[in-house]
Design goal:
- This protein is mostly helical.
- The protein has one domain.
- The protein is 86% helix and 0% strand.
- It contains 3 helices and no strands.
- The chain is elongated.
- The relative contact order is 0.19.
Length: 104
Amino acid sequence: MNKNAEFVETAKARLDELGKEFSALDAKLNDAGRTADTWTNAQASKLKKDWEQAKADVSSIAQRIETEGEEAVGDAREKAERHWEALRAAVKTYREHLEKDVAV
C-alpha cells in the first residue's frame, strides 16, 4: 500500500473514532436538554458539519489517488492533516466545555 493510500485508511479510522466520541458527547448534550448553554448547542452543530466535511474530503482524496495518482494529492493530504488537527482540537474543547456546562 502506498503512502497516500495508507494516509486515507488512517484518516478514515481517525474520523470514525472521532465520530464515535462526538456521538457520545452529543448524546450527553441531548440528555442535558435545555440546561446546555448557547455555545455548547451551537458548537455541537458546527462540529457535526465539520466532521461530515472531513469525511467527504477524505473520500475525495481517496478518489483522487485512484484517478490522478500519488503526486496529485500531496497538497490535499497536507490540508487534510491540518483539518484533522483543528477538528480534533475542536472536539477536545467541546468535550471539556460540555463536561463543565452540563456536568456530565
